[in-house]
Amino acid sequence: MSNIYDGILQFKGTWRDYQVRVLKNFDNYLNDNKVHIVAAPGSGKTTIGIEFIRKLGKPCLILSPSITIREQWKDRIEAGFLEVGVEGEQWISGDIKKPKAITTITYQALHSCTIRYSGDLIESEDGDEIQDKTEIQYRAKTHDSAEKDDSEELITGVETVDYRGFDLYKTIQEAGIGVLCLDEAHHLRNEWWKALEELIAKVPCLKVVSLTATPPYDSTPGQWERYINLCGEIDEEITVPELIKEGSLCPHQDFVYFNYPTAQEKKSVVEWKKKVSTIIDTAMANSEFEHVIMTHPGINDSKDYSEKFLDDPAYLSSLLVFMNAKGMEYPKALKTLIGTNAKIPKMEPKWMEKLLQGFLYGDTDSYNCTEEYREQWIHTLKSENLIVRNQVSLVNNQNINKMLISSMGKIQSIREITLAESNKMGPKLRQLILCDYIKKEYLSKLGDSTAVVDTIGVIPVFELLRRENISGQKLGVLSGSVILIPAEAQEYLDELFKQNDMSANYKPVKDLPYVSVDIVGDGHMKTALITQLFDTGHITILIGTKSLLGEGWDSPCINTLILATFVGSFMLSNQMRGRAIRTYRADPDKTGNIWHLVSVTDEGSEDFEMVKRRMNGFLGVHYTENSIEGGIERISIIKHPFTTKSVKKMNEEMLQLSSERDALKQRWMEAMDNTAKLEVEVTSEIGEEALKSGFFMLNVWSYVIVTTIISVLGILLQISFMSSKLGAGYSLVLIILILVALAVTGKYGYKLFSLMTPQKRMKQIAKAILQTLKQKGLITSTDVLPKVEVNQDILVISYLKGGTMREKDVFATAVYDFFATLDNQRYILISRKKKRLHYEYFAVPAVFSQKKEDAFAFKTAISNVMGEYDLVFTRNPEGRKRLLEGRIYAFSNQCDRMCEKKKKVKSDFE
């Protein structure tokens, strides 16, 4: 069969070893007509994808999550594969209505085809394209508004399409498209999923190539099954440690820099709390509101509502708290259902938030009131910014969180980090600062030393650093609508323009040594040319928007990245982080520092929680231990509680450690240990506190019982020898006793011996979990084995050796759930016998909790290795009572850190 790409496409570079491995196994991957590759940013997954397309030799449709990445595919094909003399326009199309050998579009455009949409596709700041007409009109209005001078904050791309009367499937058939390439297929809206699944169903002969850097390992079983049905099982995973070991990525480290809110931000928090207090007072004094709440049928019929209430006991409690605060009589059955004799708490924001959420959104059918009355409450709360995206926010307000996440204090953090990095790196510094917004209104303040710089944005950050006049550093701005460069770089840029048949208009920035640049011509070329200024050192500190530079853009010279961006998905944060970790031929010793900015308060920090979630997906070298792992714990400088003194100390230590770049490179080399193979394991780490509770007592009694049985057996054997002269009758009795002792020892001794140490007990639990996962069909690989290790800091580390990454994650999550703090799990396990005066309580992992038969299968597996346990359903009064007991006595609820889940790299010898 002929290959349409012969003489058209041929890779111009040199394949890396791991790419050779993947390409060598290509035919094996294709057994199910699907190839699914997971590859970290910087691995060249786009290049691998193009080579797959070339090998398959048929017309291909490439689907991308954004316009930027769509264009990146075209650029990579033209730059890296097109043979000399071949024109890209003849072979590559960005329009599905005019398909060519390779057609590259967005998932959103595909969806527009299926619904035959006509109008604007407006791509927002997080890569989404908006297709709801009302939202499009709003976005377009905002985009065109003269008042909105920072439109790039909202919109990153607009395309006009007309798919009226367009037959997508007829076009695909006529074009002979036989290959579908999916880039980051899981980061999609539900309607785009449906469009993609419809395409696969209607064109079943397609061969599918799927590429991603961030597979949804933490998704639900249903979501995962949907993803795998679309993309196929993962055939190969290329990890960050492997790429560093081979020299495709540079050694790098994440650092977290903290700040406290400003006085004005603290004042805003106080004002918000006053609004919350006023709303609560209004609700409590409103007789009509009281009447409506009392129409809830569950108040007088708790039996029929028990399971629904106990799915969300806090909601039931909010009704009780409301009635109690009003001095009303409430049915005793309601409190009995809660399962506690404790005094009903006072009305607080968390209870009113829960009550209003149910009344306004979550449980509307249960209240007898007009829609107009409910809308009045919604309007009142929205007018005070106490409802955000249909969520009542009286405790943890998203607007307040956003204010703190984009705290003015962070701009000083940027200043301090930049000064420290400049002091260490000097003219070798290539620092990128990514912001969400441009903040064009600050253009008028440039050069005005009296103007206050108190917000984060491209222009404010530029002005702040310009005022510092940092020796040896040259600032630049690159965004969709604002470009600023040092005046001394103008001549070099002019030469680049001439070489590319382009031109630009320059305008001095007041009396500053900078000029603004208005480039005439290709927008993508504009970005490329300014990037060249950065690469060559005409700019050493580049400030830009994440919408332009966050994905689909590359500058391998970057050695310092400050993420002053707070909006976007994990996929986007992973892409942004990838900007700083690529190797650079001009600097073979390059290392990358990635800075995350965090605002903290005495009451906690949603900002810090967000960074923690991000870190779970990033593998990096531990600050002090000789290991490579995910999670915030590897940044061991971070210590709780956060105080002014501790935050200052942590920041100082971060700056000091960030300056030790040579040591960073050495740490990576030592952690990888020059082993032949590195494998990423998903581990569950059980805290040493467990030794102080049931584990320890069980060990003691196991030892005593086994020792006693062996001692009795020894005595009986000794007596049998001594009494051989007493006659056959006595000997027969002794033989029977010995056999009974042997049977007891065989039955119970082995089980007790297998539980004598925490490590052995964990091994049995792990086996039970693995057995049930196999029964449920969630682990199908045959080369899997539960592994348990012990180290000096953590009691036991459990993980699954072998299997797919998804299977490793499912196993680790189940172990984590088993040892999780008892909260409101659907099923729990309770030992039939008391241990240390109380029963043992464990949670049934969520993966086994949706169906009773799954929960029972897990209970049986655990009972077989740990002794008899009862399965308790917590969605009835008796089960709720046992759950509350477990909250008091369970090991997990008594320990500060019972179990943690993280990714960790192990060599083939571990």
UniProtKB/TrEMBL annotation:
GO terms for molecular function: ATP binding; DNA binding; hydrolase activity. It holds the Pfam family ResIII. The keyword Membrane applies. InterPro entries: Helicase/UvrB_N, Helicase_ATP-bd, Helicase_Restrict-Modif_Enz, P-loop_NTPase. Residues 26-233 form the Helicase ATP-binding domain. Keywords: Membrane, Transmembrane, Transmembrane helix. It comes from the Bacteria. GO terms for cellular component: cytosol. Gene3D superfamilies: P-loop containing nucleotide triphosphate hydrolases. The chain crosses the membrane at residues 553-572, 700-721, 727-750. This is Type III restriction enzyme, res subunit. It comes from [Clostridium] fimetarium. The lineage of its organism: Bacteria, Bacillati, Bacillota, Clostridia, Lachnospirales.
